[in-house]
């Protein structure tokens, strides 16, 4: 017994001494565990007195992804002039844009019974939307009572679900019409607006505190629309069934990063802290990788679907419930504060890596952004709502797009997710071929969303601005089928000046002559000149018609669409008495394409300009 006890004591003593020795020694290698979704570890050598750097291996092991982000479909690379370019190499300008990081591919199946299955999200969609526009509540009732494909458990889709089927390869429409029907069959207009189930918690100029979000599958935008509108001003709905898609599961990693376990994407917790143009935003991601920012070297500028995936539509500035007053993103994130165009405390727009164009045949001058705060026009009036998706021109001095251009937007970086690096882009993509012809609203010169560029004036918002009813406003403007409105007479009838009337009509998100910047950015003070005597005029003089009784061009409206002054447009077109304008030269002078100039002037496809000859290369 004594020998056994002695042996046990000896063994115990040896064990204790070993543990003490290990505790006092300094390891040459320490294992650093990766973030919650990385699934790997990395080793870092260090001297005895040096604290461990948080360097994580940049290549990630595969992890289970609850929700895959569906690709945007954009396969080509573009510069700030809207031109398609060879996708740049790492370290070169414009590297890191959408086409160079491809997400989970679209996977639609036409079930042959009026439904379409999305193999990525496992949602089943109504193939043909409701037959007529409706209010938000009417749309909800429609879905709940719908029976199609022998199924009756339909619902209104969430905004993230509805946005997941958007296709950014061509635009106009931003939807694959091989699988999904639109409300029109042979042309595309901005009326392709579809309700989502997300009710806006903030307020907009149009809807007040009764607005709900939707996706415009013609223009690609997300906007908060007045929820109570019915009849022609109502929106469409495409119902869905299946388990809800994309429920975020954020984890604060405690190192300046946030992981969304739902998508396996890791985000920078804080934004860039300053605004920059689009090229600089792409360069910013590269610079952060060179600096091994937060211990990682594979950051990228998110594409439009990736960034929209982290928007939290429960929050908005001026939320009716003060507990949700703030930027449209989870409070874990640190969002910069800015002063907007109205001089109010607000939050930035954030660039995405996805390019955009103004119409179905235009160049990709623009890039998509997401508004963390109010989505405003030049006067700081919010017509779209926090969390809206819109596009800005990529560089200051570029063609105007949305009213309220900022040029210098902020950046939030992402890494990881189900993404494949495609350095040369997707050569099978078809970014430049529109699916449908634009008609009645496809960009400058066409009718479209009230309060959006190239669209009809937002009469409801204009009436609200003037403090009158929409019915009184429309009565004063008169019947548009009988000719252009007499703004002087309408203004007199309403007891205001013609300039006040014109400003109210342009007070939506109609593109203006020059764009204001937030207070901390250089601001342009040029304003759009009012229409002369309330009537459209053409090059070389006023009057009601051109040679042969043709209507004259509305230069003020065309200038607004192009983002130039009326004087600059008139000078570029030249003296009509000396012959027809040289549209190619005029377009080059104005810094726009000939197609954009022709569209803004309202010249029909293959048509004759008032009093002149067809332009060269007529679209």
What report would you give on this structure?
The protein has 619 residues and is an alpha+beta fold. It has 13 helices and 22 strands. It has a 4-stranded antiparallel β-sheet with strand order 6-7-8-12, with no helix packed on it. α6 (459-466) packs across α9 (498-505), α7 packs antiparallel against α8 (487-494) and α12 (583-590) packs across α13.
Give a short synopsis of this structure:
This protein is of the alpha+beta class and 619 residues long. The chain has helices spanning 2-24, 136-144, 159-164, 278-290, 304-308, 459-466, 470-477, 487-494, 498-505, 555-562, 566-573, 583-590, 594-601, and strands at residues 29-33, 41-45, 77-78, 84-85, 101-102, 108-110, 115-118, 124-126, 193-199, 211-216, 222-226, 240-241, 250-252, 257-260, 265-268, 338-339, 345-346, 349-356, 366-371, 389-393, 414-416, 420-421.
Features of the shown structure:
619 residues, alpha+beta, Mannose-Binding Protein A, Chain A, 4 domains, 4-stranded antiparallel sheet, 22 strands, globular, disordered N terminus, disordered C terminus
